[in-house]
Amino acid sequence: MKTKLLFIWVFLALVSNVSAQQERGIFGPSNWLNNWTEFKPAKADYGEATQILAGSISSDTRLTKKDVYIIQGNVYVTNNAVLTIDPGTIIIGDSDSRGTLIITKGAKIIAEGSETDPIVFTSNKSIKKAGDWGGIVILGDAPINKFGLYTSYNYDDLDPSLTTFGGDNAGGSSGVLKFVRVEYAGKKARGADNFNAILLGGIGNKTILENIMVSYASGDAFEVFGGEPIMSKLVSYKCNGTDFRFSLGTQAKIDNSLAIRSSYISDPSGSRCLDISSYIKKENIDFTKKQTSVVASNLTLANDSDNIEADIKAGLVKEAVYVAENTTLVLKKSVVSGFKPAVVLDSKIEINTKNLAKIRIEEMYINNCIGNIFSEGSLNNEDLENYYGNSLFFIVYSKTSNIETFNDFANPRRPDFRLALTKITASTK
Protein backbone atom coordinates (compact mmCIF):
# COMPACT_ATOMS: atom_id res chain seq x y z
CA MET A 1 0.00 0.00 0.00
CA LYS A 2 2.80 2.38 0.92
CA THR A 3 4.55 1.61 -2.37
CA LYS A 4 1.36 2.39 -4.31
CA LEU A 5 0.86 5.66 -2.46
CA LEU A 6 4.48 6.64 -3.07
CA PHE A 7 4.08 5.92 -6.80
CA ILE A 8 0.95 8.09 -6.95
CA TRP A 9 2.71 10.93 -5.11
CA VAL A 10 5.72 10.80 -7.46
CA PHE A 11 3.44 10.66 -10.52
CA LEU A 12 1.43 13.68 -9.36
CA ALA A 13 4.61 15.60 -8.58
CA LEU A 14 5.97 14.90 -12.06
CA VAL A 15 2.70 15.88 -13.74
CA SER A 16 2.54 19.06 -11.66
CA ASN A 17 6.14 19.94 -12.55
CA VAL A 18 5.60 19.34 -16.29
CA SER A 19 2.39 21.36 -16.22
CA ALA A 20 4.17 24.25 -14.50
CA GLN A 21 7.02 24.16 -17.02
CA GLN A 22 4.65 24.08 -19.95
CA GLU A 23 3.24 27.40 -18.79
CA ARG A 24 6.56 29.08 -19.60
CA GLY A 25 6.39 31.30 -22.63
CA ILE A 26 3.22 31.90 -24.61
CA PHE A 27 0.57 29.34 -23.75
CA GLY A 28 -2.97 28.18 -24.37
CA PRO A 29 -4.87 24.97 -24.97
CA SER A 30 -4.60 25.72 -28.70
CA ASN A 31 -2.35 27.92 -30.83
CA TRP A 32 -3.87 31.39 -30.38
CA LEU A 33 -1.84 32.69 -33.35
CA ASN A 34 -4.05 30.79 -35.78
CA ASN A 35 -6.48 32.55 -38.14
CA TRP A 36 -5.86 36.24 -37.36
CA THR A 37 -2.06 36.54 -37.81
CA GLU A 38 -0.11 36.79 -41.08
CA PHE A 39 3.56 35.78 -41.29
CA LYS A 40 3.90 36.37 -45.06
CA PRO A 41 2.25 39.80 -45.42
CA ALA A 42 4.23 40.70 -48.55
CA LYS A 43 2.16 38.19 -50.48
CA ALA A 44 -1.21 39.40 -49.18
CA ASP A 45 -3.50 41.23 -51.63
CA TYR A 46 -5.53 43.87 -49.81
CA GLY A 47 -6.98 45.65 -52.85
CA GLU A 48 -6.88 49.30 -53.89
CA ALA A 49 -7.99 52.22 -51.71
CA THR A 50 -11.54 53.45 -52.24
CA GLN A 51 -11.68 56.11 -49.49
CA ILE A 52 -9.17 58.76 -48.32
CA LEU A 53 -8.48 59.68 -44.69
CA ALA A 54 -6.78 63.08 -44.38
CA GLY A 55 -6.62 66.07 -42.02
CA SER A 56 -8.70 65.89 -38.83
CA ILE A 57 -11.56 63.63 -37.79
CA SER A 58 -13.48 65.75 -35.25
CA SER A 59 -16.76 63.82 -34.98
CA ASP A 60 -17.63 60.18 -34.40
CA THR A 61 -16.70 58.21 -37.52
CA ARG A 62 -17.02 54.57 -38.58
CA LEU A 63 -14.80 52.77 -41.09
CA THR A 64 -16.48 49.78 -42.69
CA LYS A 65 -15.25 46.58 -44.28
CA LYS A 66 -16.81 47.37 -47.66
CA ASP A 67 -14.21 50.11 -48.29
CA VAL A 68 -10.40 50.18 -48.30
CA TYR A 69 -9.05 53.36 -46.68
CA ILE A 70 -5.76 55.18 -47.25
CA ILE A 71 -4.19 57.42 -44.60
CA GLN A 72 -2.61 60.46 -46.27
CA GLY A 73 -0.27 62.56 -44.12
CA ASN A 74 -0.98 63.07 -40.42
CA VAL A 75 -4.59 62.17 -39.64
CA TYR A 76 -5.71 63.40 -36.20
CA VAL A 77 -8.78 62.14 -34.35
CA THR A 78 -9.71 65.16 -32.21
CA ASN A 79 -12.48 66.81 -30.18
CA ASN A 80 -13.13 63.67 -28.07
CA ALA A 81 -14.37 61.91 -31.21
CA VAL A 82 -14.56 58.12 -31.47
CA LEU A 83 -13.09 56.41 -34.53
CA THR A 84 -14.76 53.00 -34.88
CA ILE A 85 -13.26 50.43 -37.27
CA ASP A 86 -15.33 47.41 -38.19
CA PRO A 87 -13.89 43.87 -38.26
CA GLY A 88 -12.15 43.02 -41.51
CA THR A 89 -11.48 46.64 -42.47
CA ILE A 90 -8.27 47.40 -44.39
CA ILE A 91 -6.45 50.71 -43.77
CA ILE A 92 -3.45 51.52 -45.96
CA GLY A 93 -0.72 53.97 -44.98
CA ASP A 94 0.43 56.24 -47.80
CA SER A 95 4.17 56.03 -48.24
CA ASP A 96 4.79 59.34 -50.03
CA SER A 97 3.09 61.43 -47.33
CA ARG A 98 4.13 59.09 -44.48
CA GLY A 99 0.55 58.36 -43.48
CA THR A 100 0.16 58.35 -39.69
CA LEU A 101 -2.95 57.97 -37.53
CA ILE A 102 -2.96 59.97 -34.28
CA ILE A 103 -5.65 59.45 -31.64
CA THR A 104 -5.39 62.65 -29.56
CA LYS A 105 -5.96 62.84 -25.83
CA GLY A 106 -9.66 62.53 -25.06
CA ALA A 107 -10.48 60.85 -28.36
CA LYS A 108 -10.83 57.08 -28.78
CA ILE A 109 -10.22 54.34 -31.30
CA ILE A 110 -12.50 51.30 -31.26
CA ALA A 111 -10.70 48.86 -33.55
CA GLU A 112 -12.15 45.51 -32.54
CA GLY A 113 -11.60 42.87 -35.17
CA SER A 114 -12.23 39.18 -34.72
CA GLU A 115 -10.14 36.02 -34.89
CA THR A 116 -11.46 35.26 -38.37
CA ASP A 117 -11.81 38.88 -39.52
CA PRO A 118 -8.91 40.99 -38.18
CA ILE A 119 -8.42 44.70 -38.89
CA VAL A 120 -5.28 45.35 -40.98
CA PHE A 121 -3.09 48.46 -41.25
CA THR A 122 -0.55 48.00 -44.03
CA SER A 123 1.54 49.63 -46.79
CA ASN A 124 0.29 51.01 -50.10
CA LYS A 125 3.45 49.90 -51.91
CA SER A 126 3.23 47.14 -54.49
CA ILE A 127 6.55 45.82 -53.17
CA LYS A 128 6.26 46.28 -49.43
CA LYS A 129 9.15 46.83 -47.06
CA ALA A 130 9.74 47.93 -43.47
CA GLY A 131 9.19 51.66 -42.96
CA ASP A 132 6.80 52.24 -45.85
CA TRP A 133 4.43 54.44 -43.79
CA GLY A 134 4.20 56.07 -40.36
CA GLY A 135 2.21 54.17 -37.77
CA ILE A 136 -0.41 54.56 -35.06
CA VAL A 137 -0.10 57.02 -32.14
CA ILE A 138 -2.61 56.76 -29.26
CA LEU A 139 -2.48 59.41 -26.52
CA GLY A 140 -4.26 59.43 -23.16
CA ASP A 141 -4.47 61.19 -19.80
CA ALA A 142 -2.84 58.65 -17.48
CA PRO A 143 0.23 59.61 -15.37
CA ILE A 144 3.75 60.07 -16.67
CA ASN A 145 6.90 60.78 -14.65
CA LYS A 146 8.03 64.02 -16.28
CA PHE A 147 7.75 67.37 -14.47
CA GLY A 148 4.19 68.64 -14.75
CA LEU A 149 1.15 66.56 -15.58
CA TYR A 150 1.58 66.67 -19.34
CA THR A 151 4.11 66.49 -22.10
CA SER A 152 3.93 66.54 -25.89
CA TYR A 153 5.06 64.08 -28.51
CA ASN A 154 7.20 66.51 -30.51
CA TYR A 155 8.31 64.50 -33.47
CA ASP A 156 9.05 65.56 -37.02
CA ASP A 157 6.05 67.46 -38.42
CA LEU A 158 3.48 66.35 -35.84
CA ASP A 159 1.49 69.23 -34.35
CA PRO A 160 2.64 69.56 -30.68
CA SER A 161 -0.68 71.15 -29.73
CA LEU A 162 -2.41 67.94 -30.80
CA THR A 163 0.07 65.46 -29.37
CA THR A 164 -0.06 66.22 -25.65
CA PHE A 165 -0.47 63.29 -23.30
CA GLY A 166 -0.40 62.56 -19.58
CA GLY A 167 -2.55 63.49 -16.61
CA ASP A 168 -3.86 61.90 -13.44
CA ASN A 169 -6.43 59.45 -14.83
CA ALA A 170 -4.79 56.05 -14.44
CA GLY A 171 -8.15 54.37 -15.10
CA GLY A 172 -8.77 56.17 -18.37
CA SER A 173 -9.64 54.52 -21.68
CA SER A 174 -8.37 55.39 -25.14
CA GLY A 175 -10.49 52.65 -26.67
CA VAL A 176 -9.82 49.17 -28.04
CA LEU A 177 -7.20 47.51 -30.23
CA LYS A 178 -8.13 43.85 -30.58
CA PHE A 179 -7.38 41.41 -33.40
CA VAL A 180 -5.42 44.09 -35.25
CA ARG A 181 -2.38 43.74 -37.52
CA VAL A 182 0.08 46.56 -38.28
CA GLU A 183 2.48 45.83 -41.15
CA TYR A 184 5.51 47.66 -42.64
CA ALA A 185 5.19 50.78 -40.44
CA GLY A 186 7.98 52.95 -39.01
CA LYS A 187 8.96 55.33 -41.82
CA LYS A 188 12.04 57.41 -41.07
CA ALA A 189 11.29 60.98 -40.05
CA ARG A 190 13.25 63.90 -41.47
CA GLY A 191 16.42 64.35 -39.44
CA ALA A 192 15.16 61.98 -36.79
CA ASP A 193 14.68 58.32 -36.01
CA ASN A 194 12.01 56.07 -37.43
CA PHE A 195 8.42 56.29 -36.36
CA ASN A 196 7.18 53.40 -34.25
CA ALA A 197 4.48 51.04 -35.45
CA ILE A 198 2.36 51.65 -32.33
CA LEU A 199 3.14 54.40 -29.82
CA LEU A 200 1.08 54.59 -26.62
CA GLY A 201 1.43 57.78 -24.56
CA GLY A 202 -0.30 58.07 -21.17
CA ILE A 203 -2.69 55.18 -21.81
CA GLY A 204 -5.06 54.30 -18.95
CA ASN A 205 -5.71 50.79 -17.72
CA LYS A 206 -9.25 50.64 -19.11
CA THR A 207 -7.84 50.66 -22.66
CA ILE A 208 -8.14 47.19 -24.20
CA LEU A 209 -4.94 46.01 -25.92
CA GLU A 210 -5.21 42.38 -26.97
CA ASN A 211 -4.30 40.22 -29.97
CA ILE A 212 -2.22 42.83 -31.79
CA MET A 213 0.45 41.84 -34.32
CA VAL A 214 3.17 44.18 -35.58
CA SER A 215 5.31 42.81 -38.39
CA TYR A 216 8.27 44.18 -40.31
CA ALA A 217 8.32 47.58 -38.61
CA SER A 218 11.37 49.73 -39.24
CA GLY A 219 11.11 51.44 -35.83
CA ASP A 220 9.98 49.95 -32.53
CA ALA A 221 6.98 47.65 -32.67
CA PHE A 222 5.35 48.79 -29.40
CA GLU A 223 6.62 51.89 -27.55
CA VAL A 224 4.91 52.92 -24.31
CA PHE A 225 5.42 56.31 -22.65
CA GLY A 226 3.92 56.40 -19.15
CA GLY A 227 0.38 55.33 -18.36
CA GLU A 228 -0.85 52.04 -16.96
CA PRO A 229 -1.49 49.76 -19.95
CA ILE A 230 -2.59 46.15 -19.59
CA MET A 231 -1.45 44.21 -22.67
CA SER A 232 -2.04 40.61 -23.71
CA LYS A 233 -1.33 38.40 -26.73
CA LEU A 234 0.87 40.91 -28.50
CA VAL A 235 3.12 39.79 -31.37
CA SER A 236 6.20 41.55 -32.73
CA TYR A 237 7.53 39.74 -35.78
CA LYS A 238 10.87 40.48 -37.44
CA CYS A 239 10.90 44.20 -36.64
CA ASN A 240 13.99 46.35 -37.00
CA GLY A 241 13.69 48.24 -33.72
CA THR A 242 12.86 47.14 -30.19
CA ASP A 243 9.85 44.90 -29.82
CA PHE A 244 8.47 46.14 -26.48
CA ARG A 245 9.84 49.40 -25.06
CA PHE A 246 8.58 50.98 -21.82
CA SER A 247 9.62 54.40 -20.47
CA LEU A 248 8.52 57.66 -18.75
CA GLY A 249 7.12 56.00 -15.64
CA THR A 250 4.98 53.33 -17.28
CA GLN A 251 3.20 51.02 -14.85
CA ALA A 252 2.58 48.15 -17.28
CA LYS A 253 1.40 44.58 -17.27
CA ILE A 254 2.12 42.45 -20.33
CA ASP A 255 1.44 38.75 -20.59
CA ASN A 256 1.26 35.84 -23.05
CA SER A 257 3.11 37.81 -25.74
CA LEU A 258 5.66 37.01 -28.43
CA ALA A 259 8.70 38.62 -30.05
CA ILE A 260 10.51 36.93 -32.94
CA ARG A 261 13.67 38.69 -34.09
CA SER A 262 15.82 38.06 -37.14
CA SER A 263 19.60 38.43 -37.16
CA TYR A 264 19.48 39.79 -40.71
CA ILE A 265 16.52 42.15 -40.29
CA SER A 266 16.69 43.46 -36.74
CA ASP A 267 19.06 46.30 -35.93
CA PRO A 268 21.83 44.89 -33.69
CA SER A 269 22.95 48.32 -32.43
CA GLY A 270 20.62 48.89 -29.53
CA SER A 271 17.41 47.04 -30.34
CA ARG A 272 16.04 44.38 -28.06
CA CYS A 273 12.94 42.34 -27.39
CA LEU A 274 12.22 44.08 -24.09
CA ASP A 275 13.64 47.47 -23.04
CA ILE A 276 12.77 48.96 -19.64
CA SER A 277 13.81 52.54 -18.74
CA SER A 278 12.40 55.43 -16.74
CA TYR A 279 13.53 58.33 -18.89
CA ILE A 280 15.07 59.51 -22.10
CA LYS A 281 16.66 62.59 -20.46
CA LYS A 282 17.20 62.30 -16.72
CA GLU A 283 16.96 66.06 -16.15
CA ASN A 284 13.33 66.05 -17.30
CA ILE A 285 12.13 63.48 -14.77
CA ASP A 286 10.33 64.09 -11.48
CA PHE A 287 11.70 61.42 -9.14
CA THR A 288 8.91 62.01 -6.62
CA LYS A 289 6.63 60.22 -9.10
CA LYS A 290 6.45 56.53 -9.90
CA GLN A 291 9.27 55.34 -12.10
CA THR A 292 8.84 52.68 -14.76
CA SER A 293 7.60 49.34 -13.45
CA VAL A 294 6.76 46.38 -15.69
CA VAL A 295 5.28 43.02 -14.79
CA ALA A 296 5.89 40.66 -17.73
CA SER A 297 4.74 37.06 -17.65
CA ASN A 298 4.65 34.26 -20.20
CA LEU A 299 6.67 36.05 -22.85
CA THR A 300 8.43 34.15 -25.62
CA LEU A 301 11.47 36.04 -26.92
CA ALA A 302 13.26 34.17 -29.68
CA ASN A 303 15.85 34.84 -32.36
CA ASP A 304 15.01 33.27 -35.70
CA SER A 305 18.45 31.99 -36.69
CA ASP A 306 19.69 28.83 -38.35
CA ASN A 307 23.14 29.34 -36.82
CA ILE A 308 22.92 31.51 -33.72
CA GLU A 309 26.60 31.09 -32.78
CA ALA A 310 27.74 32.33 -36.20
CA ASP A 311 25.32 35.26 -36.04
CA ILE A 312 26.58 36.22 -32.59
CA LYS A 313 30.20 36.08 -33.75
CA ALA A 314 29.24 38.32 -36.67
CA GLY A 315 27.87 40.90 -34.23
CA LEU A 316 24.28 40.50 -35.40
CA VAL A 317 22.78 39.51 -32.05
CA LYS A 318 22.61 41.28 -28.69
CA GLU A 319 20.72 40.76 -25.45
CA ALA A 320 17.00 40.01 -25.40
CA VAL A 321 16.18 42.13 -22.33
CA TYR A 322 17.69 45.43 -21.14
CA VAL A 323 16.89 46.91 -17.72
CA ALA A 324 17.95 50.51 -17.02
CA GLU A 325 18.51 52.10 -13.61
CA ASN A 326 15.61 53.40 -11.49
CA THR A 327 13.19 50.83 -12.83
CA THR A 328 11.38 47.76 -11.55
CA LEU A 329 10.91 44.58 -13.55
CA VAL A 330 9.17 41.31 -12.78
CA LEU A 331 9.91 38.84 -15.58
CA LYS A 332 8.51 35.39 -14.96
CA LYS A 333 7.39 32.20 -16.68
CA SER A 334 9.07 33.36 -19.89
CA VAL A 335 11.25 31.84 -22.60
CA VAL A 336 14.39 33.51 -23.98
CA SER A 337 16.04 31.69 -26.88
CA GLY A 338 19.10 32.63 -28.93
CA PHE A 339 20.66 35.84 -27.57
CA LYS A 340 23.93 37.21 -26.16
CA PRO A 341 23.18 37.22 -23.28
CA ALA A 342 19.57 36.70 -22.20
CA VAL A 343 19.41 39.79 -19.93
CA VAL A 344 21.62 42.87 -19.43
CA LEU A 345 21.34 45.21 -16.44
CA ASP A 346 22.38 48.85 -16.79
CA SER A 347 25.96 49.41 -15.62
CA LYS A 348 24.62 52.09 -13.25
CA ILE A 349 22.71 49.46 -11.26
CA GLU A 350 24.82 48.48 -8.27
CA ILE A 351 24.63 44.73 -7.75
CA ASN A 352 23.25 44.38 -4.25
CA THR A 353 20.26 42.74 -2.59
CA LYS A 354 18.22 45.96 -2.47
CA ASN A 355 18.53 46.64 -6.20
CA LEU A 356 18.10 43.03 -7.28
CA ALA A 357 14.91 42.80 -5.23
CA LYS A 358 13.42 45.21 -7.79
CA ILE A 359 14.52 42.99 -10.71
CA ARG A 360 12.79 39.66 -10.22
CA ILE A 361 13.65 37.15 -12.92
CA GLU A 362 12.11 33.79 -12.09
CA GLU A 363 10.61 30.58 -13.50
CA MET A 364 12.44 31.26 -16.78
CA TYR A 365 13.46 28.98 -19.62
CA ILE A 366 16.75 30.29 -21.06
CA ASN A 367 17.78 28.43 -24.19
CA ASN A 368 20.78 28.64 -26.49
CA CYS A 369 22.00 31.97 -25.11
CA ILE A 370 25.65 32.98 -24.83
CA GLY A 371 25.43 34.06 -21.20
CA ASN A 372 22.43 34.43 -18.96
CA ILE A 373 22.23 37.63 -16.88
CA PHE A 374 25.03 40.24 -17.03
CA SER A 375 25.80 43.78 -15.97
CA GLU A 376 26.34 46.06 -18.96
CA GLY A 377 29.97 46.12 -20.06
CA SER A 378 31.02 43.47 -17.55
CA LEU A 379 32.73 40.26 -18.55
CA ASN A 380 32.22 38.74 -15.10
CA ASN A 381 28.69 37.97 -14.01
CA GLU A 382 29.56 35.75 -11.04
CA ASP A 383 27.50 37.80 -8.58
CA LEU A 384 24.42 37.66 -10.80
CA GLU A 385 24.93 33.97 -11.57
CA ASN A 386 25.10 33.19 -7.87
CA TYR A 387 22.02 35.29 -7.14
CA TYR A 388 19.72 34.13 -9.93
CA GLY A 389 21.27 30.66 -9.97
CA ASN A 390 19.55 29.93 -6.66
CA SER A 391 17.09 27.09 -7.13
CA LEU A 392 14.37 29.26 -5.61
CA PHE A 393 14.21 31.20 -8.88
CA PHE A 394 13.36 28.02 -10.86
CA ILE A 395 15.40 29.04 -13.93
CA VAL A 396 15.89 26.25 -16.46
CA TYR A 397 18.80 26.31 -18.94
CA SER A 398 19.00 24.45 -22.24
CA LYS A 399 20.99 24.28 -25.47
CA THR A 400 18.66 23.18 -28.24
CA SER A 401 17.69 24.54 -31.66
CA ASN A 402 14.48 26.46 -32.22
CA ILE A 403 13.10 23.49 -34.14
CA GLU A 404 13.57 21.30 -31.07
CA THR A 405 12.52 23.94 -28.56
CA PHE A 406 9.16 25.02 -29.97
CA ASN A 407 6.15 23.12 -31.30
CA ASP A 408 6.40 24.22 -34.95
CA PHE A 409 8.89 27.07 -35.23
CA ALA A 410 9.62 26.87 -38.97
CA ASN A 411 6.07 26.59 -40.28
CA PRO A 412 5.90 29.45 -42.83
CA ARG A 413 2.16 30.06 -42.53
CA ARG A 414 0.99 28.79 -39.16
CA PRO A 415 3.95 28.57 -36.80
CA ASP A 416 3.43 27.44 -33.23
CA PHE A 417 5.86 29.12 -30.83
CA ARG A 418 4.63 27.38 -27.69
CA LEU A 419 7.34 25.53 -25.76
CA ALA A 420 7.59 21.84 -26.72
CA LEU A 421 8.83 20.14 -23.59
CA THR A 422 8.43 16.66 -25.02
CA LYS A 423 11.19 17.42 -27.55
CA ILE A 424 13.84 18.83 -25.23
CA THR A 425 16.06 17.77 -22.38
CA ALA A 426 16.54 20.63 -19.95
CA SER A 427 18.75 21.01 -16.93
CA THR A 428 18.66 23.40 -14.02
CA LYS A 429 21.71 25.19 -12.71
Automatic annotation (TrEMBL):
* Entry keyword set: Signal
Q: Which residues form the signal peptide?
A: 1-20
Q: Superkingdom of this entry's organism?
A: Bacteria
Protein name (Swiss-Prot/TrEMBL): T9SS C-terminal target domain-containing protein
Q: Identify the species of origin.
A: Flavobacterium aquicola
Read off the lineage from the record: Bacteria, Pseudomonadati, Bacteroidota, Flavobacteriia, Flavobacteriales
